[in-house]
């Protein structure tokens, strides 16, 4: 009997367990249907009879609309805690909804925008308010948002409703438009000729300076000229550099001779031959990809002509100086040797390598004055011209000549030259060899000295003869024979 009761009890428990499992499964299915909007109403039987509870209400369409709207929406408490948000708001702040609900709104905006948000939010607690704020996304991209706050009625959970509109694209478009307008203004007002080239190498824009420089109008060249087919750039070997701009985003610069008549794709008003300083720079988008290139032309035609004339003038001057029978030295502000002509090397008995870099203070010069006294370096003409800032002229110097192993006598001038700040930047030293003149002067002096010596000897001899005659006459007079033997002077 006891065993039968135990068996019945076990069967009863099994039956009840199966019933509970069945009821649980039904409940789970019902909850799933409710959660997924598959149930519109629930029928409940109770002591008051059967009642129907609707799962939809007048708010349901609005909830669906809020969930599906393009703007972000959130409900906030008075302390800015978010108690509800739609999926669009979650996308805007790049957070899952479960991380947003319960967080404060200020956690999703930058520090520099919190004061603006607080001001708008506090106004929204009492009345409608709106304004703009900017914040950074997790990827450090700037986003622009318009916030509209509205206070909620007391019967609705929450204190403030906020609608968030993302106008980043519009703002960026406005900024791009503004930047393009600014860039166009800069391009048009630039004194240098500027071309805008697209990534295929085609000319898309040029400024007024370009039109003036090349005698072109927009319709003559825009869309017709391609830099990759420019014959002048190709012939002068610049095309690899130009391709580096478009393929490697390099910045290049070169000097080119440019003939407008050689470009078959365009027709310039004049056939011009120009010397141009050309620089080409890439324009990159936000992803580092080339969109355009800027070509800047600086007309250096006149400068090149001037440089050519200067080179020709310098060559003529150099030839003139080299052919001069006068020694010429160019010395720096510390009297260092910078330049010399062949005559200077000949007169000093030095090679160019031996001379350049030496100064007037070098003891190897071994210079003396005409009287044979030492001639210290600091008193040489060039150091004196540097010290006083005045020309020093007609200084005679006896300089040791290593080739002839003797002194060469030089007549030296030193003329200082000044820079724009009135500082001496070099001294021109010229000198001529007066060794022969000095030798001639010495020979003449010797002849004069010899003549004077001969004259003195002759005079002395004559004086002695006169004295001798006087003595003989005196002797004859004393002997009484003066009348017969008297010597006539």
Describe what this molecule looks like in 3D:
By secondary structure, the protein is α+β, with helices and mostly antiparallel strands. It folds into four domains: 60-171, Beta-Lactamase (2-Layer Sandwich), CATH 3.30.450; 183-303, Beta-Lactamase (2-Layer Sandwich); 325-433, 2-Layer Sandwich (Beta-Lactamase); 440-482. Helix content is 42%, strand content 27%. It has 16 helices and 18 strands. A hairpin with a 5-residue loop joins strand 11 and strand 12 (290-299). The N and C termini lie far apart (209 Å). Mean pLDDT is 81; it is low at 52-58.
Gist?
With 489 residues, this protein is α+β, with helices and mostly antiparallel strands. The protein has helices at 2-35, 60-68, 87-93, 97-100, 114-126, 168-189, 208-214, 218-221, 231-235, 239-248, 301-323, 342-348, 352-355, 381-388, 435-479, 482-485; strands at 41-46, 49-54, 72-76, 82-85, 129-136, 142-151, 160-166, 193-198, 203-206, 252-259, 273-284, 290-299, 327-331, 337-340, 367-368, 392-401, 406-418, 424-433.
């Amino acid at each position: 009997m006891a065993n039968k009761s135990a068996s019945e009890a076990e069967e009863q428990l099994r039956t009840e367990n199966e019933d509970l499992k069945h009821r649980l499964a039904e409940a789970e299915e019902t909850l799933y249907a409710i959660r997924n909007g598959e149930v519109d109403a629930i029928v409940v039987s109770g002591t008051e009879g059967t009642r129907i509870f609707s799962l939809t209400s007048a708010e349901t369409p609005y909830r669906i609309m809020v969930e599906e709207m393009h703007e972000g929406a959130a409900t906030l408490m008075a302390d800015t805690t978010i108690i509800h948000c739609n999926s669009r708001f979650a996308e805007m702040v790049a957070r899952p909804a479960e991380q947003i609900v319960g967080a404060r709104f200020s956690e999703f905006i930058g520090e520099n925008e919190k004061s603006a948000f607080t001001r708008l939010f506090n106004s929204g607690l009492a009345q409608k308010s709106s304004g703009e704020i900017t914040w950074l996304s997790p990827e450090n991209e700037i986003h622009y948002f318009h916030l509209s706050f509205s206070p909620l009625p007391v019967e609705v959970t929450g204190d403030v409703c906020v609608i968030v509109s993302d106008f980043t694209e519009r703002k960026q478009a406005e900024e791009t438009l503004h930047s393009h307008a600014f860039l166009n203004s800069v391009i048009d007002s630039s004194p240098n000729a500027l071309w805008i080239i697209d990534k295929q190498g085609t000319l898309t824009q040029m400024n007024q300076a370009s039109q003036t420089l090349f005698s072109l109008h927009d319709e003559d060249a825009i869309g017709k000229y391609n830099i990759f087919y420019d014959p002048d750039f190709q012939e002068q070997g610049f095309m690899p550099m130009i391709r580096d701009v478009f393929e490697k985003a390099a910045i290049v610069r070169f000097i080119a001779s440019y003939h407008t008549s050689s470009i078959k794709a365009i027709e310039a008003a004049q056939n011009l031959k120009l010397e141009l300083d050309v620089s080409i720079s890439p324009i990159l988008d936000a992803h580092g990809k080339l969109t355009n290139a800027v070509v800047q032309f600086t007309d250096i035609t006149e400068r090149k002509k001037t440089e050519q004339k200067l080179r020709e003038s310098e060559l003529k001057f150099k030839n003139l100086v080299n052919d001069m029978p006068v020694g010429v030295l160019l010395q720096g502000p510390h009297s260092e040797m910078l330049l010399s002509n062949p005559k200077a090397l000949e007169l000093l008995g030095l090679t160019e390598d031996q001379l350049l870099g030496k100064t007037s203070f070098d003891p190897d010069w071994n210079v003396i004055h005409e009287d044979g006294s030492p001639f210290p370096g600091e008193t040489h003409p060039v150091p004196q011209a540097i010290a006083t800032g005045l020309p020093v002229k007609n200084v005679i110097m006896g300089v040791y000549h290593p080739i002839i192993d003797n002194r060469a006598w030089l007549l030296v001038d030193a003329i200082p030259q000044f820079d724009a700040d009135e500082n001496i930047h070099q001294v021109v030293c010229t000198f001529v060899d007066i060794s022969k003149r000095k030798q001639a002067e010495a020979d003449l002096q010797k002849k004069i000295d010899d003549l004077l010596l001969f004259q003195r000897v002759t005079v002395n001899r004559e004086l002695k003869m006169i004295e001798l005659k006087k003595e003989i006459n005196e002797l004859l007079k004393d002997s009484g024979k003066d009348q017969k033997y008297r010597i006539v002077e």
